């Protein structure tokens, strides 16, 4: 079976290297729907690339989860990919020593927004991808959403509110994705999911 040609953003050697690294780092991870986790970072990078961002920011999007989800350290990342990319990735890495979901996610939001426009762009793209995934999971449900799903929705809404104070090209897309999630949520709560 012939593989499709790579997207044009993969013509850049640095982006190709970052994608290979992300594929390797996330090799054994899957998303909630069972698909390879690397699809999330690839979608995040594609959203960032669509804004016209440069290769470093696209690389940071591809690598944004490696510190949280692999044994890669910030020093290793900086040695291989440079300081600028590593600064964005560390800004998007939550502090595991902060206990409690709300406190940890609140700290992450503040850290990402304070880190500057590159981090905010990747953060917005990451949240767009996550809201899309949540919406798809929510739409398949035939019962009320779990407390975890509701917590995620609240976090994503708080992300939008923080990003709106320092907007970028993806904030309106995140706003749309959250609006679409609310449509699905209201349909599910009204019994629409059971009628499908």
Written account of the structure:
The protein contains 11 helices and no strands. By secondary structure, the protein is mainly alpha-helical. It has one domain: Hypothetical protein af1432. The radius of gyration is 17 Å and the shape is globular.
Ordered list of secondary-structure elements with their pairings:
Blueprint: H1 13-25, H2 38-49, H3 55-63, H4 66-69, H5 74-81, H6 83-91, H7 101-114, H8 117-140, H9 147-164, H10 171-189, H11 192-195
Task: Please describe the structure with a list of short key phrases separated by commas or semicolons.
single chain, 196 residues, Hypothetical protein af1432, 11 helices, disordered C terminus
- Structural class assignment: mainly alpha
CATH domain class: Mainly Alpha
How many strands appear in the DSSP assignment? Answer: 0
Amount of beta strand: under 5%
Q: Please estimate the helix content.
A: 55-70%
Shape: globular
Find the CATH topology.
Hypothetical protein af1432
Gist of the model:
The protein has 196 residues and is mainly α. It is 68% helix and 0% strand. It contains eleven helices and no strands.
């Amino acid at each position: 079976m012939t593989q499709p040609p790579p997207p044009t953003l993969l013509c850049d050697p640095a982006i190709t290297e970052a994608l290979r690294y992300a594929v390797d780092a996330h090799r054994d991870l899957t998303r909630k729907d069972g698909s390879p986790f690397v699809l999330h970072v690839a979608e995040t990078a594609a959203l960032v690339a669509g804004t016209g961002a440069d290769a470093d920011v696209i690389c940071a999007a591809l690598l944004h989860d490696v510190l949280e989800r692999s044994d890669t350290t910030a020093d290793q990342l900086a040695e291989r990919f440079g300081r600028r990319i590593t600064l964005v990735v560390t800004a998007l890495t939550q502090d595991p020593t902060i206990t409690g979901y709300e406190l940890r996610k609140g700290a992450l939001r503040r850290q990402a927004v304070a880190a500057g426009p590159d981090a905010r762009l990747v953060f917005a793209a990451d949240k767009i991808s996550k809201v899309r995934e949540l919406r798809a999971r929510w739409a398949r449900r035939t019962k009320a959403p779990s407390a975890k799903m509701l917590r995620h929705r609240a976090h994503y809404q708080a992300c939008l509110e923080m990003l709106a104070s320092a907007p970028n090209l993806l904030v309106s897309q995140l706003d749309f994705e959250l609006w679409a999630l609310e449509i699905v949520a209201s349909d599910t709560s009204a019994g629409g999911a059971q009628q499908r």
